[in-house]
Structures are given as structure tokens and as C-alpha cells.
Amino acid sequence: MNAPTPSPYLSGNFAPVHDELDLPELEVIGALPPALRGAFVRVGPNPQHPPRGRYHWFDGDGMVHSVTFTASGAHYKNRWIRTEGFLKEQARGEAIWTGLAEPPDLMNPDGAFKNVANTAFVQVQGELWALWEAGPAHALRVSDLSTLGVRDFGGALTHPLTAHPKLDPVTGELIFFGYAPLPPYCWYSVADATGQLLFTHEVNLDVGVMMHDFAVTATRSIVMDLPLTMRLDRMMEGGPMMAWEPERGARFGVLPRHGDESQIQWFARPACMIFHTANAYDDGDEVVLDACRMDRTDVLGGAEKTDGEGDDGGRLTRFRFNLKTGASTEELLHPTPCDFPRVHPARLSRPHRFTYAGRLAPSDDGTPRMDGVIKFDHQTNQGAEHGWGPGRVGGEVVFAPRPGAEAEDDGWLMTFVYDEAQSASELVVLSAQDLSPVARVILPVRVPYGFHGDWVPGV
Ligand SMILES: [Fe+2]
Fold it and tell me: Domain map of the chain by residue range?
């Protein structure tokens, strides 16, 4: 076991907080819209104990932070997610598991990995599920952020569950995949609106790849075989488990939503990395995919660095895959680096006009830094930007539709913003139509940087 090495992800506003709080009726600068009723929720890594060995940002125990909007104002709450691993380490009083920057401890009697439930949410069956891409979901109650338990489709789930399943806003189906470093490397599944798992099919790949996201249209799904590979044999020889192998190129597999591996149509593209898609939709013979495309990646930092270049930041890019001709194209939509793209939840899998994404800025230590928001209008092909201000860093922006709205962008954008000089956090609410500030909810506590959020209406 190596001695713990200082990690940038344990200092500044990446450092964990240790109090679980309920803070009602927070100070608000500006005016909260009366129609804004519900909860903004965001999850992220917040390690309960000092790490065993080197720490990677993805390792920390999931903690949820919520700001709920009611008639009496804005209210903050935060809770760790009570996963099995969290409870075991709480009882033990120290970390049991090592993280991604260390070789997995295959001899650990508690299992080689801890499901940290720290990555993203999906709302299904009236529950909020916290997701982690190498294990099942954990259901939460939004009102008190208590952990209700593990959700694995009644035991029918046989593969890791992506942190980015897609909920069809029309049919209620949940479409998802999973990946692993062992054959078949990828699985594809669909559950119906009642939560019944309809099927799971293997998607056999040549090698394991990190597949953080995928996309769906109203009729098809798109899996991404990108060259951030996972090789156990390389690790056994002393190399990194994950490495960037651009010579492999990239492949996008399009299959009917209820199809199987035999029906996948593969489209080869130059090497790229995509962590997050914005949306996809059917357009005649073509499938359109919008995603934040990177030329390369260095996701695991120095320990796994292979080309000495590092991440170059995603850029909003439109791919088109022609199912009749087999041709494909890609088009850069906006030159500003960005990631964590989102669309109106009712447009998911259907044509969308607007994409919102976190604007990426350079950072001194290589940690991701989102200093603003980008709104891209696919009808005018124009991008608008709003910055959080000097020394202020935000995160993924979540779109909350105005109840009864007709315009796709009639609603609000929200994210936690951290002021580095003041060491203070707030929730910023913008008009999604013109990116003008609407309100700032002042938090008397620091909210560490995290991953994905969601809007739960009407709580
Ligand atoms: Fe993600």
C-alpha cells in the first residue's frame, strides 16, 4: 500500500464536508419565481474517511445536496447516501476500499469495489435514483434525502448500470447499458414504464472501453466504442488498467431500441472521447447525435496518463449517421470548451432546439473548472454564454421547466456556484431564455464540487 499522496481533489472546494444539515429559509438575493416549486438536487463524491492510498475524484462516497423551493422560501439539506459500503466504513471508522488510482484489492473480503452512488440521478417510479456506473442504483426519498435501498429491477439486473440511463418522456421506458473490463464488455437493456426489465442483450466488443454515456432516439439507441480502453492484462503487467489508444479509432453502434447485437450498425469515426451526450433523435434515414466531443482524454490523471497531452475539453458536436448509406459526418457546433450538456427532459430522444452545457475554463492543477454556462440554439446555430464571474466556479446546469410552459426554453437554469475568495457557495438561478440572473440563494455552508444534478418538480 502506497502512502496517501496529496490529491487536488481533497483540497479547496473539492474537500469533503462532514456535517449533514437542514437549513430552512435561506437568504435570497433577487426574487424566486412563485412558479418555481420543487427541488434542485446534486450528487457528488464526499469521502467519509481519509483514503487508503491515492485518491481519485471518482472514489468519494456519494453525498446529495438539495435546495427545495416552497411557498416559504428556499431550504438546503445534505445527506450521505447510505450504501452498504458507506455503512461498513462508518462502523469500522476508516476506509476499507482503495480507489481507482490504486489496483483493485481483489483479496478484500468486502469485495474489490465500493458502490459509492456518487455520479448522477434518474427519476423513475416516483423515486429518485442515485447512480454509479459499476453497480445498481440507490433509491432516495427527496423530502428528507434518506436512502430507501438498492434498486436492481427486482434482482433481474445482471450487469453494471450506467449512471446515464435514458428515460423516454413519451413511453416511460428506461433504456440503459452497462460496461465492464471483462467479456462481453457491454450489455444493453430496456425496462418498461412499470419498472419491469424487458430484456438484456450482450454487446460483445473487442476490448473493454470506458463507456460513460450513450444516447437514444424515439426508435434507436447509440452505444459508443471509444478508445479509452480497459485492459486487465495490461494492468497485470504493471501498466495502467485504463489507457488512451487513439489508433483504435472510434465506433458508434446504432441499434433498434428493442433490437439486439445482431442488429447493430457500426459507424467508424476518427478517434475521439465523449463523456456526455446531450441528446439524439431520428431524422429520416439519419440518426442525429449531439455530444461534447474531445480529441483525447486523460481522465484518470497522472497515474494513467499515456500521451502527455491531457484532456482538451469537450466541444458541442453534431454527428449524423445515415442508416441507409452507412455514411456518417460530424460538425463542430460551438468552439468554446464545455461538458455536462443537458436538454429539456421532455425533448430527450426527440428533436430539441436548445442545449445547455457547463463552460470549461483552464485550471492551474488540471481539475475541471466550469466558469459559466453555454446555451446553444440549434435553430439559429448561435451560442450564448453567461459567466459566473471572476473566481467563481459552477457545475452542471440543470433545466427546470416553468409549469405549463410552451416554449422549450421557458424555465430556469440552476447550479451551485463557489466563490473561491470568499470560500462561500450559493445556488444561482438564471432565466433559461436569456441567461439573465433571477435569484441567488445564499448558502451559509460550503457545497463541494460534484457531478450531476436534477430537478424534481413539485416536491
Ligand atoms: Fe456523467
Answer: 8-457
Res. 48 pLDDT band, cuts 50 70 90? very high
Q: How far is the CA of 447 from the CAs of 172, 393, 415, in angstroms? A: 33, 11, 11
CA 401–ligand 1 middle distance (angstroms): 21
The percentage of the chain sitting over the pLDDT mark of 70, rounded to a whole number, equals: 96
Whether the pLDDT of residue 166 is over 80: the answer is yes
Beta bridge mates, 12: none
Q: Which residues contact residue 443 at a Cβ distance below 8 angstroms, ignoring those fewer than 6 apart? A: 23, 26, 76, 416, 424, 425, 426, 427
What does the block give as the cell for 371? 466558469
Amino acid 299: pLDDT? 63
* CATH (residue range 8-457): 2.130.10.10
Q: How far is the CA of 73 from the centre of ligand 1 (A)?
A: 30
Instruction: Compute, in angstroms, the gap from residue 296 CA to the centroid of ligand 1.
Output: 17
Residue 413 near residue 422 (C-beta atoms within 8 A): no
Q: Tell me the pLDDT band of 311, cut-offs 50, 70 and 90.
A: low
The pTM score is 0.95
CB 355 within 8 A of CB 290: yes
